Amino acid sequence: MIETGLPTTTLGRSGLEVTRMGFGLAALGRPAYITLGRDADLGARRDRETMQQRCHHMLDAAYSAGIRYVDTARSYGRAEEFLASWLRARRIAPGGLTVGSKWGYRYTGAWNMHAEVHESKDLSEAMFRDQLPWTKALLGPHLDLYQVHSATLESGVLDDPAVLHALAELGESGVAVGLTVSGPRQAEIVGHALEVDVDGVNPFSTVQATWNVLESSVGPALEEAHRRGWGVIVKEALANGRLTGHGEHRATGAVDEVASRRGAAVDEVAIAAALGQPWADVVLSGAVTPSQLESNLAAFELPLTDKDRDELVSGTEDPSTYWSRRSALPWQ
Hints:
Layout: E1 8-10, E2 17-19, E3 21-24, H1 38-42, H2 48-64, E4 69-71, H3 79-89, E5 98-103, E6 105-107, E7 119-121, H4 125-139, E8 143-148, H5 161-172, E9 176-181, H6 186-194, E10 206-210, H7 219-227, E11 231-235, H8 254-262, H9 266-275, E12 282-285, H10 290-297, H11 306-313, H12 319-327
Parallel strand pairs: 3-4, 3-12, 4-5, 5-8, 8-9, 9-10, 10-11, 11-12
Antiparallel strand pairs: 1-2, 6-7
Helix pairs in contact: 2-3, 6-7, 8-9, 8-11
């Protein structure tokens, strides 16, 4: 049993116990990422040692606040390595928190802030067989959940017998199997994944998707996944910084009006909206400073009213517009 002051739940049929807020390492394991305001938040010094210290500092803050789900991936630079060294340094035993990682992208940025390509995608069985041992070598018995990183219909990963059987084998070994989704066709991908069959069994028990007050189109698919017993993890609840007040790409309108009326920060409102979805088990924070994390956590104390929710719906963007804007965000 995880002991924490935050609300906890079971992550669907995976059986994993998690806190309703998780902590994501996408922005802490590499020098460049697409979160707005990164230059102001991190400054110019982003060598490996500095980023590891920052990652450890933020993991300390998240753990002290009661967060007991951590999200990482092979492609997040050295995020798995930083997490592993933190687990050792803090002597946290397996089961002391729940850890999810992902395979399918390779970090290619070579710690270069201005690399032309920061990551490359490959959802083949060969990539799975290559990346899983690296993740296990770093995280060992701490690895609780391993996810297909951004499954798409075009990749064919959800129809690849070799990959699906490999995932089923992993599930049988005691590591839960899930998938993450992105893009304007998220709902279709989730629907397709729900029908996967490997010798009469669907290997997936969780799904991680982008849902926020600007892009909520995947909501009905996540509700169906939850109804069928899958755990649901929400990523990008702050729309890569567009819902934090940072920069020229920031969102304006409904969410600002609700925040102003409620006397809350924009990120509090956005995360409260995600936490308020009845199918959402975990909502990830991608904070890189303690003050950001504190503000994210304040969402637990901000119950939204029907008026708030109705107003937020009025600010929803068309999915194609949202994802076009996301793809235009610069690596900072």
